[in-house]
Amino acid sequence: MDYQSMRHLFFIALLFLSIPANAQNTDVFTVNNIAVDVESDSAFSARNNALEKARRDAFNILTSRLLTQEERKDLPKAKSKHIATLVDSFEINREKYSKNRYLASLNITFNPRAVHGYLGRYTNVALPDLFSHGANTPSKTASDSTQSTMKITRLILPWYGKESAITLWRDPNPWRDAWASWARTQRAQDLNIIVPIGDINDMQAFNPQKPLSFDQDALQRLLNRYNADQAIIAMADPLPNGMIRVSLYQSTSMTPRFIDRVIASGGSMRGMNRFLPAIYQSAEKIESAATKAYSIAAAKQSVTDTPSFAVDNTITTAFEAEVKIANIQQWIGIKQSLSLVSGVNNVQVKSLSPGRAVIAFRYAGTPEALRRDLSRRGLSLYANPTQMSGASPYIIVRKNG
């Protein structure tokens, strides 16, 4: 076995050993005795600059532990604010300061999950998947299953930006960084909210171009990775007046369902903190949505409030179907149900006669996905058993009617 293989096996072993016990975690991801000596205009400024320097020095030491010199060349120079999001805690062993000078020795502990995500985004190193071994994901117990729907594990998908520039995994995404930081709070834990780390494994499992147009199987792979029950799509759009507009959608194995919209101000806060009011309000909406019954009114609101840039309607498939109808009222109801299916457009009535109608439309998805979406609206889709020339390939009928 060559040195490179042995080094990777050793790194994997360290990570696996770090999962069960905090003490072992500390051995790998804690950097001890970082010495700083910084001068500035004031003691306060010197201390802040010293802490920033200590985090950077500790991060450099940590990456030298985990990566070879050649692998570290692939890492961009990390911004101080990004390094700060990777830190779990720090301990000051000793410190001295004067009017404009600060000296200290610190121990800095990094969050394994955050470090895993950072390295996974910027290097081609095959890092071990911590989550397949239960690290940093909410565990489910038998008692959990008897609790309310609040015990559902929610995976936040934080999309950020304007229209064609909107991004989930691509950096910079300060909205995702803010959610990742907030996810460590007690409030997030109470709601069972987790945020994906955004490493290469996430990108390979789920990497849609548009927030609301994606393959459901890909979403399920991402949910499985984090042992999550549902995804919450949180699209943040920075407005010219400094406000943040957030559109929230819920999705499991079905088409995303609109939850609500939030418009919040960051006030005078800077950096990631400017997103906190929007996150707090979003959390309230997510919590209230857990107890809301799904309704046709909510479905109509979903259609009205879906931003056009969020759905990739350019990738569509042509469908033709025969619709079985008992009367004109049922026909009107079926047309209304079709209008509520996200991704269905250009509906045209090719013929209408007693007992049946033939329609043509386009849908952004597979026949199986269309079948699921129609089922949510009380409609069934199945292949037409008739083999006659000119027969529509599909039949749509109202369930139980």
Strand order of the largest sheet: 5-4-6-7-8
- Structural class of the helices, strands and pairings? alpha+beta
- Work out the helicity level: 25-40%
Report Rg. Answer: 26 Å
Main sheet specs? 5 strands, mixed
Report the sheet-strand fraction: 25-35%
Number of helices, where a helix is a run of at least 4 consecutive DSSP H or I residues? 15
Overall pLDDT level: 77
Low-pLDDT windows of residues? 7-26, 131-150, 292-306
Query: What's the CATH architecture of the largest domain?
Result: 3-Layer(aba) Sandwich
Order of SSEs: HHEHHHEEHHEHHEHHEEEHHEHEEHEE
Can you tell me the CATH class of the largest domain? Alpha Beta
From the spread of the alpha carbons, the general shape counts as: elongated
Number of domains: 3
The number of distinct β-strands equals: 13
CATH topology of the largest domain: Rossmann fold
Short précis:
The protein is α+β, with helices and mostly antiparallel strands and 401 residues long. The protein is 37% helix and 26% strand.
Report on the architecture of this protein.
This protein is an alpha+beta fold. Helices cover 37% and strands 26% of the residues. The protein is built from 15 helices and 13 strands. The strands form 3 sheets. Strands 5-4-6-7-8 form a 5-stranded mixed sheet. It has a 5-stranded mixed sheet with strand order 10-11-9-13-12. Strands 1-3-2 form a 3-stranded antiparallel sheet. Helix 1 crosses helix 2. Mean pLDDT is 77; it is low at 7-26, 131-150 and 292-306.
Features:
Endonuclease I-creI, Rossmann fold, 401 residues, elongated, single chain, 13 strands, 5-stranded mixed beta sheet
